[in-house]
Structure formats: structure tokens, C-alpha cells
């Protein structure tokens, strides 16, 4: 335990300087800052997705690397390389574990996210192969999450814990702490515990890892337009398109609403028809009928629509109860079919083949992402000239990361964003 005691002592001694977290003036140990940052990134479910791996690939990686890079005083280029490689490794692991591990209830963002975080932090730390292998195993031993937690704080906790696990794993491995070298593929390891066909999962994972550096999967990441789980995005896109085409639907009396979604959603508790209205902000995010009902009532969907005043809105509730979910094997991930009948307006249908944010044809632009950042900040705190200036500077700092001598400025600006 000498390595563990040494690492813990170093963390305690370093708190006086500490790492920063977004949105707050607090300084924490690097591990605790990674936990809070990773959880923050995922809490609003405004992060990204890689559908085939059932993963939000950058949440845990960036959650770990923002404070780790700040503490290490690495260059912006080193930070970007660590984020890229950590994310690519996480996706490759997810491609092996999905879909069966996810279908069994494991939240792969938390499982594979710890690996990605460990790899990214390990690269900045300069770990050799053996110690990086140990860090991956250590992270796997402490990073896990479950889909049953969707709609509660524990969903984001799992991702924050994965970010922290990556940081702690690298600190321990650097001091000689060991782990099973075959923690992923060995008998009794992650794959055999989570997957139906371990040999097939290992082969798919190995193939994906073997392509690292030649096949880049980051360009295939889907970015989010709405602050909710990606399962809700195609249904929201369908409802928005229909309203833009027939705005009178907002005030019409709807008599039938059928929403067809991918058949694999049938195993997810968040995709079921709901009898009771969502009881909390987080539950509302994972209630497909509620999210669509908000769009059909207000013509928009924002984080503020998850508050109590909207959850208790009788118009929203009436439409939510009307919506029937159909699980259709012909509907792929990122797709949805919405069919509506309304008094005096007849029937309407809208099929979304690829939800907005899907590259390359319906990707979000840099301008879209800048607008998303601005609206997210200004929706959360009162607008001031200083606040607007900070957001502008954050955008400039992100754009200039590849030539930045350190990531310090970005972390400090993110901490200033809430005006505290």
C-alpha cells in the first residue's frame, strides 16, 4: 500500500494550489476536480455520442484531462493529443463491449470512460507501456455505471467517477501499483463478466484497437442539439420539423400520437410509456413522451422545460399521456417516425433518418456549437457584459488550444463562466 499512501499524501498536499472546476471558484485535488468536471459534463446530457459503442465518448476523458492538464501545465497540443487518443481508445473498447454489455444494464460511458481517461492522463504523465497497462486495469476496477440509474444523479456520478478513476489510476501506476494485465480480456475480466460471447467481443475490440492511428472514429461522433439523452433527439427533431411545417399543430387538439423508435429501446426503462409525469428534472430528461410533448406544446425544448412549472403543465401532460411508443426493428439508432392526427388538420407524419448533429450531412457547425454554449451559459445565469466577454474568450481559447503553451487560460475562463 506504499504507492497508495504516497499518492494520497501527494493529493492532500496539493490541494492548496489545486485544480479548477468549470463554473465555480473552488480549487480541489486533481482527482476530485476530475470527478466534479466529468459529472458536470454529463449531468445535462448535452455531451456527445458514438452510437455503435453506446458511449458518450468525451465526457470522462475531458472530465479527467481538464484538471490533469491544468495541474501538469502541459501544452494545448499535448492536451488535444491526449483527448484524441483517450477518446479513440474508449470508443474501440466500447465497440467490443456493445451492444450486449449495454443491453445487460452496464452504462458503457462509465466503464470504458475510465479506460479512456487513464490512457489520456497516462500519455501526459509519460507512463511507459507496462505502467499504462496497469493504469488501465486499475481504472477498470473502479469505474462502472448502470443504465437503471438514468433519471437520477447517479448517471452523472458514474461518469464523474470514471474521470476520477482515470486520474487516480495513473497516479497509482506511476508509483508502482499493479493490476491484472488481462483485466479486459482475461477469464473473470470485464469482457467475460459483461458480454454474452466473450471471444467475439474480444475479437471486435482487438480489431478496433488494431486500427488506432489509421481509422479515426472521432469524426463520426454525434453532437447534441438538445439537453437530453440521444434517444430523445430524433423524436424531438421529428416533432420540431412537423411543427415548422404545420405550426397550427401547437394549438390543435391532438387525437392520436404514435412514435416509432429503435426496437432495442424496448429493454431500456427510460423508453417506456409513462403513466405518471416525471417527478424530477432528471427523470424528465429520460421520458421520451414528456420531451416530445414539450416540443408539441411549446415548439422548442430547452433545459428550462425540465423544471416543475413545465412538468406540471396540464397541456404538456395531456399530450404526454396521448403518445404511444412503438418499438420498430426497421428504425435504426438516430432515427424516429412520428405520426399525428389532429381535429380539423387530418394526419401528419415525419421520419427522421439521421438526427441533427450527425456527421457528415447534418453535423452541427462551429457556429451552432458557439450558439449552444452562449445559450447554455445565459440560460443558467443572468446576462452581463462581463459574462458575455468571458464566453467569447472561452471560444477563443478553445480555438487556439493547438498553439497554447498551457491549458491554464481555458480552465480559468471556464471557472469564471458563472461570474462567481
Characterize the structure shown:
This protein is of the alpha+beta class and 420 residues long. It has two domains: 2-220, 2-methylcitrate dehydratase PrpD (Orthogonal Bundle); 230-352, 2-methylcitrate dehydratase PrpD (60s Ribosomal Protein L30, Chain: A). Helix content is 52%, strand content 8%. It has a four-stranded mixed β-sheet with strand order 4-3-5-6. Strands 1-2 form a two-stranded antiparallel ribbon. Helix 3 crosses helix 8 (153-174) and helix 4 (76-97) packs antiparallel against helix 10.
How would the blueprint of this fold be written?
Blueprint: H1 2-13, E1 19-20, E2 27-28, H2 30-43, H3 59-72, H4 76-97, H5 100-103, H6 108-125, H7 129-142, H8 153-174, H9 190-194, H10 198-210, H11 233-245, E3 254-262, H12 281-285, H13 288-298, H14 308-311, H15 314-322, E4 323-328, E5 336-342, E6 346-352, H16 366-380, H17 385-399, H18 408-416
Parallel strand pairs: 3-4
Antiparallel strand pairs: 1-2, 3-5, 5-6
Features:
6 strands; 2-methylcitrate dehydratase PrpD; 420 residues; 52% helix; 18 helices; alpha+beta; two-stranded antiparallel sheet; 60s Ribosomal Protein L30, Chain: A; four-stranded mixed β-sheet
